């Protein structure tokens, strides 16, 4: 088992890349994995907290102005930028709606482990990801109404209670695990922890493809166009985020870019009204593909930019 976990951890990007295609090729498996998404969130957050450097994470938390600026960019600056670029009507209305909502969504919680896999600042990704997620009920509904005329209802109290419970439980369990392992052994078992993170993310990669195969067979042209848009929007937002925060240094700027492009659109689905355009929902589904496929493609690029000396201990070749 240890060898398997070490293998998965050392080939994380390609395991996730293949996982997406497993979900597409085996739609029944994707349906079976779908109920595992909720518990997988807690498991993924716990494993990430075990793996990440808490001192670095606390250092980011003690610099609220940086965290605040990045969070403001993610939740306000990014959607305003996308809305401005699409104001001329260059894209179909449903695609424009989907792209603005994508930009307004907080980062996926798996952005932190992906950041560590790529050798970026996982602690920064985790801190701003949690901050942005907690603030989402307060920012997305007014932005959706102002920019798109779309009324979204996110139950703030229920949302905050559920998310707070997940975060608190994950911190407690991670703290206990870190104490059991001990600081001296943590670096030695890092590869195994990374393997566990990859297993949980693989469940995500398969489960999020639930329903995409059927849509692909039913509307191949629309899915193809939406997929092209997703593979343009994701790296475009990453570039915009990295450029906006280049003053933080290369590694942190790339981390901001990563969380800018990998957006938690699934968090918004529950708030959609019943008459929401199906094509918007379809875009949210296909937009998951670049999140799990681009890390494998972009890994050499990240290594060249930040250098192997700054890379995490995870070997992802």
UniProtKB/TrEMBL annotation:
<protein>
    <recommendedName>
        <fullName>Bile acid:Na+ symporter, BASS family</fullName>
    </recommendedName>
</protein>
<feature type="transmembrane region" description="Helical">
    <location>
        <begin position="223"/>
        <end position="246"/>
    </location>
</feature>
<keyword id="KW-1133">Transmembrane helix</keyword>
<keyword id="KW-0472">Membrane</keyword>
<feature type="transmembrane region" description="Helical">
    <location>
        <begin position="123"/>
        <end position="147"/>
    </location>
</feature>
<keyword id="KW-0812">Transmembrane</keyword>
<feature type="transmembrane region" description="Helical">
    <location>
        <begin position="37"/>
        <end position="54"/>
    </location>
</feature>
<feature type="transmembrane region" description="Helical">
    <location>
        <begin position="253"/>
        <end position="274"/>
    </location>
</feature>
<feature type="transmembrane region" description="Helical">
    <location>
        <begin position="159"/>
        <end position="177"/>
    </location>
</feature>
<feature type="transmembrane region" description="Helical">
    <location>
        <begin position="66"/>
        <end position="87"/>
    </location>
</feature>
<feature type="transmembrane region" description="Helical">
    <location>
        <begin position="93"/>
        <end position="116"/>
    </location>
</feature>
<feature type="transmembrane region" description="Helical">
    <location>
        <begin position="197"/>
        <end position="217"/>
    </location>
</feature>
<feature type="transmembrane region" description="Helical">
    <location>
        <begin position="280"/>
        <end position="302"/>
    </location>
</feature>
<dbReference type="InterPro" id="IPR038770">
    <property type="entry name" value="Na+/solute_symporter_sf"/>
</dbReference>
């Amino acid at each position: 088992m240890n060898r398997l976990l070490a293998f998965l951890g050392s080939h994380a990007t390609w395991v996730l890349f293949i996982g997406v295609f497993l979900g597409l090729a085996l739609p029944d498996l994707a349906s079976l994995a779908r109920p595992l998404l909720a518990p997988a969130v807690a498991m993924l957050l716990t494993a990430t907290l075990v793996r990440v450097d808490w001192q670095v994470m606390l250092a980011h938390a003690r610099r609220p102005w940086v965290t605040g600026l990045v969070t403001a960019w993610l939740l306000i600056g990014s959607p305003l930028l996308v809305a401005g670029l699409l104001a001329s009507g260059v894209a179909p209305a449903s695609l424009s709606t989907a792209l603005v909502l994508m930009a307004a969504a907080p980062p996926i919680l798996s952005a932190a482990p992906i950041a560590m896999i790529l050798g970026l600042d996982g602690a920064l990704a985790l801190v701003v990801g949690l901050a942005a997620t907690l603030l989402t009920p307060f920012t997305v509904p007014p932005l959706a109404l102002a920019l798109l005329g779309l009324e979204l209802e996110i139950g703030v109290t229920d949302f905050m209670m559920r998310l707070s419970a997940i975060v608190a439980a994950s911190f407690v369990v991670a703290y206990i695990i870190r104490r059991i392992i001990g600081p001296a052994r943590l670096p030695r078992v890092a590869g195994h922890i990374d393997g566990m993170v990859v297993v949980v993310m693989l469940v995500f990669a398969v489960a999020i493809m639930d329903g995409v195969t059927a849509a692909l067979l039913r509307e191949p042209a629309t899915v193809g166009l939406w997929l092209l848009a997703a593979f343009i929007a994701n790296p475009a937002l990453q570039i915009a985020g990295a450029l906006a925060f280049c003053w933080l240094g290369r590694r942190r700027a790339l981390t901001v870019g990563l969380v800018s492009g990998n957006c938690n659109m699934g968090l918004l689905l529950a708030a959609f009204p019943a008459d929401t355009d199906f094509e918007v929902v379809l875009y949210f589904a296909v937009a998951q593909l670049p999140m799990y496929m681009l890390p494998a493609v972009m890994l050499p690029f990240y290594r060249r930019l930040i250098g192997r000396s700054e890379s995490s201990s995870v070997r992802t070749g």
